[in-house]
C-alpha cells in the first residue's frame, strides 16, 4: 500500500508471496513476475524475485527494490535472473521500515549452500528470537522479522538431512502468523502457521508447480488451482512431486484465519480455504441489510473494497445499486504523502463523486471499515456537496477496538476512532445520517464453518500476544 493510501484509508495491507518450480528446467522468472502483478494489491512498497537453476550451481540470482512490480522490473532486469526454481514477494511494511534492504525475498548463503525465503505475516516472539541469535554472534542486515526465520532455518539445516526438515524445526520455534515460501537449490517448501492466519495455496501448470498467497495469482499465470495449504501444514515440492507434513496442525476448532482477508485484503476473484471472496462480501452486504435496513434511493460502495458488499446490500433490499465515484487508478507511489491538513484534497484526487448519480437522492454508502474516520467524513461531505439528500453509512466490519499483532497494520488504540467514541458519536463526527457496523456475531455468515480471528474487534487473540506494539521493534 502506498503512503498515500495508508493516509486515506488508515489501513495497511499485508504481503504477497509467490513461488514457482518448473521440473523440466524452463525459466520461471516471467511467471513469478506475472504472479506478483496479480498480488500487487497485497503490498506496494517493495518487491523482489530470487531464482536458481536446479540443474546448475547452488546459487540464487535476485533482483529487488522499492516500488511497484512494474517499477522494479523490466525486460532487462528479468533477463538477468533465469532459473527454473524461484520465488517472489510484494511487501507492505508491517514490521520493519520501508527500506531497500528490507525488501524480500531474503537470500541467505551459508555453509550448506543457499536458500531464499519470502514471508507474509508477523511473529509475536521475534524480539526474543532475534536477541538469542545476536548473543551467539548473528549479524542482521535488515529490520524485519523474516530474517529471524531465515537464520533459524539455516542453523537447523546444519543438523538435519533435508531443507524441509530444517524449515519444520525452525517454525516450531516461532509464534505468530506466517505463510512462508522457502526455496533451497533443489526444493520449494511452503508452510502455513497452525492457526491459518495467513493464506497459501498450491497450483500447477503442465510441469510447473506454484505456491501463492491467493488463487488469483495462479489463475493469472495460466495455472490450475490444486488446493490450499492447510493451517499447520508444510508442503515440499521436488522433482519427486509433493509431500506433506502436518505435525504442526492443531484442533480445527482453534484455527483462526484473518477475517479481513474476506472483508478487505484478498482480491474478489480469489478463493481461500474453500470460501469464494466475492460471495463472502455479497453475504456481508446482505447481513448488513438485515441488521440495518433504511429507506433510500441508491446503494453505492466505496471503491474498491466496498463495492461487492454494496451489491449484496442492494440485492437484499431491492434498492438500486449505482456507481457514485470515479476512481483515479493512476495515483501511485510518486504521490507526495499529504499532511493531516491536506487529507481532504488527497481523497478528492483519489475519488471524485459523479454528481448526476447522487443529486437529490438518499444514499446508502457501504465501506469495509472506519479506522480514523477522516476519510469517511470527507467522502460524506463530497456526496452532500454533490447534492445527496441523506447519506446512510454501512460498514462490512465491526468497529476496530484492538491492535493486530499478526501482520495487519491496524493503528494503535489512540488512533482508532471507535476506541474512544460510541457509534452515535462517530456518526455525528463523520456527518452521516445513520451508521451501522457489521455485528461481531454475524461475521460467521461470511465464512461458514471456518475458524477465524476477530481479535481486532473483540480483543480475543488466538494466542498469547506481546503487551506492546512490536511492529517497529527492530528500527534503529
TrEMBL record:
Q: Which cofactor does it need?
A: Mg(2+); [4Fe-4S] cluster
Its protein name is Amidophosphoribosyltransferase
Matching PANTHER family, A to Z? AMIDOPHOSPHORIBOSYLTRANSFERASE
Q: Where does Mg(2+) bind?
A: 305, 367-368
List the InterPro entries hit by this protein, alphabetically.
GATase_2_dom (IPR017932), Ntn_hydrolases_N (IPR029055), PRTase-like (IPR029057), PRTase_dom (IPR000836), PurF (IPR005854), PurF_N (IPR035584)
Q: Which Gene3D superfamilies does the protein's record reference?
A: 3.40.50.2020, Glutamine Phosphoribosylpyrophosphate, subunit 1, domain 1
Question: What residues bind [4Fe-4S] cluster, as annotated?
Answer: 258, 404, 453, 456
Q: Which residues form the Glutamine amidotransferase type-2 domain?
A: 15-240
**Active-site feature positions:** 15
According to its UniProt record, which reaction does this protein catalyse? Answer: 5-phospho-beta-D-ribosylamine + L-glutamate + diphosphate = 5-phospho-alpha-D-ribose 1-diphosphate + L-glutamine + H2O
Q: In which pathway does it act?
A: Purine metabolism; IMP biosynthesis via de novo pathway; N(1)-(5-phospho-D-ribosyl)glycinamide from 5-phospho-alpha-D-ribose 1-diphosphate: step 1/2
Q: Which UniProt keywords apply?
A: 4Fe-4S, Glutamine amidotransferase, Glycosyltransferase, Iron, Iron-sulfur, Magnesium, Metal-binding, Purine biosynthesis, Transferase
Coiled-coil spans are: none
Instruction: Give the cofactor note text.
Output: Binds 1 Mg(2+) ion per subunit. Binds 1 [4Fe-4S] cluster per subunit.
Q: What is its EC number?
A: 2.4.2.14
Function of the protein: Catalyzes the formation of phosphoribosylamine from phosphoribosylpyrophosphate (PRPP) and glutamine.
Please give the family membership noted in the entry: In the C-terminal section; belongs to the purine/pyrimidine phosphoribosyltransferase family.
One of the entry's Gene Ontology molecular-function terms is: amidophosphoribosyltransferase activity
